[in-house]
Amino acid sequence: MARLEAPAFWPVLVHCASSDLDLPSGRLRRLLSGQPDWEELIRRLAEHGLLGAFKRLLEIEGCADLLPESVLPVVKGTCRMETMAGLVREQLTERVLRALAERSIPLMPVKGIHLSEKVYPRRGIRPLSDVDLLTTRGCIEDAALALTELGLEAQANHTPTFRSSGAFEVVFEVDALRGRTKSRFRETYLIDADEVWTASIPGELFGVGVREMRPEHLLIYLSLHLAERHYFERLIWLRDIREVIIGYGDAIDWEYLAGCAKRWRAASYTYFSLLLASRLAGAPLGQAALAPLRPRYPEARLFERLLTAGGGPQLPFAAWSVERQLLSVLGDGFLRRAWAEATFPIHAAMRMWWRSRNRLEPGRARRANAPEAGGA
């Protein structure tokens, strides 16, 4: 399979997703030299959540002089807005945590806020779009009441949906900038919620006692968020996996992780997410960690070929506009948009991806018609 030509901004994005943010490599200056469209580059960095990493690399590698004056206001303004939004969300998160803790509601922060505060070695790198807090099924009403008393407005179209079995998570997503909250109750895969909560680790966030996922469960959770829910959309989610693997190091039990992923019918999603984290974000992963997860059925092997043809990933993330995501992974990620649109109809490509997606985990419970509230 011929290797597709990457757009000029792509190597810069991969560098920001994979580089050590404390040790200058000297590569950024070479990558930035001759960039044909700086506004496009900055827009892509923002779409992929990598502006914080880019700004840090500019500092440690001494490349700020390469930025044209025309894009400096955009970079500074966007970084300033991300910083201010992050501070607002952090302040509200602390208020929410304290309010819920006073009611003895169990809490498990996940994704952005947990990673930013507890996993990333430096603050200001991981952007925060919302605040995800997991709680248990029995506490959803008390938690909703506590958030209402804080002045947060529940979105009317995101009321929780309760079902009788298989519950894994109740997620409150707090949008600090809009002063609203939405809750999502999902039945997904066969994840053992009791095992996740029982194995969780006591921790602290903003001075409030919380529970933290053990690293194996966190990696599976992040993999499902990246691969199943968002179709490999943003490079920052690969950097998340990289930082977890580096941060927890030898504390990760890879045999246990593989066992959980298989029991929960999430092995394929976990495998492809870890594979890409290794290939694109430089996550220190050996074959011993990946081999037990590797799927063997034909669709997965084709999927793997698309990822690794020509010796490297075939632009698996949105090299095209996130807002105009028409072809999901097969059209908007692994295949060049122009080629995909010229080769087969958009709707046919989407149907092809959905069929393969529903088969990606053979035997897993179908969720196509399951009601769900919210989501992000």
Describe this structure in words.
- This protein is α+β, with helices and mostly antiparallel strands.
- The chain folds into 3 domains: 1-70, no CATH class; 95-212, no CATH class; 214-364, no CATH class.
- The protein is 50% helix and 10% strand.
- It is built from 17 helices and 7 strands.
- The protein has helices spanning 10-18, 27-32, 38-47, 51-61, 72-102, 111-119, 140-149, 193-199, 215-229, 236-248, 254-263, 267-281, 287-290, 298-308, 328-333, 337-343, 346-358; strands at residues 108-110, 131-135, 153-154, 167-175, 180-187, 201-205, 208-212.
- The chain has a 5-stranded mixed β-sheet with strand order 1-2-4-5-3.
- The protein is globular.
- The relative contact order is 0.11.
Offer a concise description of the structure.
With 376 residues, this protein is of the alpha+beta class. The protein has 3 domains: 1-70, no CATH class; 95-212, no CATH class; 214-364, no CATH class.
Characteristic key phrases:
376 residues; alpha+beta; 3 domains; five-stranded mixed sheet; two-stranded antiparallel ribbon; 17 helices; 7 strands; disordered C terminus
Blueprint (SSEs and pairs):
Blueprint: H1 10-18, H2 27-32, H3 38-47, H4 51-61, H5 72-102, E1 108-110, H6 111-119, E2 131-135, H7 140-149, E3 153-154, E4 167-175, E5 180-187, H8 193-199, E6 201-205, E7 208-212, H9 215-229, H10 236-248, H11 254-263, H12 267-281, H13 287-290, H14 298-308, H15 328-333, H16 337-343, H17 346-358
Parallel strand pairs: 3-5
Antiparallel strand pairs: 1-2, 2-4, 4-5, 6-7
Helix pairs in contact: 9-10, 9-11, 9-12, 10-12
